Amino acid sequence: MINSLKYISTRGSAPELSFKDVIFEGLASDGGLYVPKHWPCLSNELIDSFSSMTYQEIAYEVISPYIDSTLSDEDLKAIIKKSYSCFDNTEITPLTKLDNKNYLLELYHGPTYAFKDVAMQFISQLMNFYLNENKQSINILGATSGDTGAAAIEGFKNVKSAKIFILHPYNKISEVQRKFMTTIKSENVFNIAIKGSFDDCQNIIKKIFSDNDYKKEKSLTAINSINWSRIMCQMVYYFYTLSRIKSKDKKVLFSVPTGNFGDILAGYISKKMGLKIDMLNIATNDNDILTRTLMTGRHQLQGVIETTSPSIDIQISSNFERLLYDITQDSNYVSNLMNELKRTGKYTLKENDLITMRKSFCSYSVSEEESANIIKNTFEKYKVIIDPHTAVGLSSAQKCDKEYDIMITLSTAHPAKFKDTVSNLLHNEEFITKKVSNILKLDENMTILDNDIDVVRNFITGNI
Questions:
Q1: What is the distance between the alpha carbons of residues 104 and 382, in angstroms, rounded to a whole number?
Q2: Would you list the DSSP string of 135-170?
Q3: Is residue 372 part of a domain?
Q4: Which domain holds residue 333?
């Protein structure tokens, strides 16, 4: 690789880092998130050629501009090949056409049935490559609203140079989501159930990472979507999607069920890189902070509401900070907003920034009743079974302007991960796979802890 792209913090006070360093750093030392100094742009000719490429070949072309000389072309291609060798569909993220306008992008063909596998399989192979090369070991921390943790554990369970600690909100994710994590038998895996919400879990992780001395002493790294490599991997399937659809001279909208804003941010960056996306729809459930923000400019935290789409039961959307920085290019402004959010639980965007944001994003929230209805209607009309998160995305898309010729909803999880919700609505259990049935019979291993940073940090210290 001959690229020399550097990464900077959204808050402006952390040192610039190279690709290799930013992968292991996670949260910047000033509390911000790392972003590239500029967005690489792919030529129209290259993007057009993706139609004859495999998913893995497209991944190489999209990811390689962000890599530096620490990884050769051959090593990157080998990592990509190995990362997606465990997916159950050769297309990796296949498309399902519902009708002439609506498509589902199936992101659940990885080992844990969720879109998080697309990034986590790559990141585990990437980190393992660097760790083996330098004979180092790390300790990985993450918080999950249901799917990130399982994907991370699956990716790192055989990485001997890493221990992994995953926090999830106790009794607030589906049984299948939990068991994908807690039934893994590996000495380097630690499941921690926090008596609180996902936002509580995420705040604990952020506080631990804000202690730079502790982070360095314990060789900690993050695999939440605060880690740049997560976003980088997710950009690939946006390019893949439009390489498989005839979208020339058509208006295209992607609808993304959104909690932490990472998945939809990947679409925004793809657009910055040259992909023709007309609009990105932020699909929210009853936890509609981003919908309210885009409508009013007022970003205000409220209590988390438990829904049947728990992976987006989130109020603090970490990756929204990356969008704010990209739109404003003002690290002081972003830092002040984040400090205000921490201090008061709210902030207000400038009108010009809101106008800019609305050029790329729209947002509609979906009630529990609407989500249930779309699951039933999609099955009745198309004989396609979707999970509650996909239902939020699909229902939200239907509220968007009718001007779009093509609407692609990201189907982020297999319905079997939410079998109780879906089977109760459809009176059908044929979609529950043998893999899920077997997992439900296995014993679990997790530690239940109070929502207290000191308690969690002591647990981590005692097991490193």
A1: 12
A2: T--EEEEEE-SSSHHHHHHHHHTT-TTEEEEEEEET
A3: yes
A4: 95-113+231-428
Average pLDDT over residues 34-50: 97
Identify which of 248, 245, 232 has the alpha carbon closest to the alpha carbon of residue 319: 232
Tell me how far apart the alpha carbons of residues 376 and 426 are, in angstroms, rounded to a whole number: 6
Residue 203 lies inside a defined structural domain of this protein: no
Non-local (6+) Cβ contacts of 343 within 8 A are: none
Kindly state the tokens that stand for 190: 């630690």
The answer to whether 193 touches 161, Cβ cutoff 8 Å, is no
- 177-202 pLDDT, tens digit each: 999 999 998 999 999 999 999 889 98
Q: Is residue 71 part of a domain?
A: no
For residues 268 and 396, give the distance between their C-alpha atoms in angstroms, rounded to a whole number. 18
Domain assignment present for 357: yes
Residues tagged active-site: 116
Pairwise CA distance, residues 418 & 173, whole Å = 9
Task: Identify the bridge partners of residue 33 per DSSP, sorted by sequence position.
Answer: 27
Number of domains the chain is built from = 1
Which CATH number belongs to the domain containing residue 340 in this structure? Answer: 3.40.50.1100
Residue with tokens 């996670």: 26
pLDDT, tens digit (0-9, with 9 covering 90-100), for 387-402 = 999 999 999 999 998 8
Q: Supply φ then ψ for residue 411, to 5 degrees.
A: -90, 100
- The pLDDT tens digits of the residues spanning 119-166 come to 999 999 999 999 988 888 999 999 987 788 899 999 998 888 999 999
Angle (CA) 235 394 361, round 5°: 55
- CA-nearest of 458, 263, 314, 321 to 31 is 321
Tens-digit pLDDT profile for residues 219-238: 998 887 788 999 999 999 99
φ, ψ dihedrals at 95, nearest 5°: -100, 140
Supply the pTM of this predicted model: 0.92
Cα–Cα distances in angstroms (integers) from residue 134 to residues 70, 89, 216, 324, in the given order:
11, 34, 17, 36
Q: How confident is the model at residue 3 (pLDDT cuts 50, 70, 90)?
A: low
Rg for the chain, CA atoms, rounded = 21
- Token representation of residue 80: 């990509």
Structure tokens at 113: 């049935």
At residue 426, the 3 state secondary structure works out as: helix
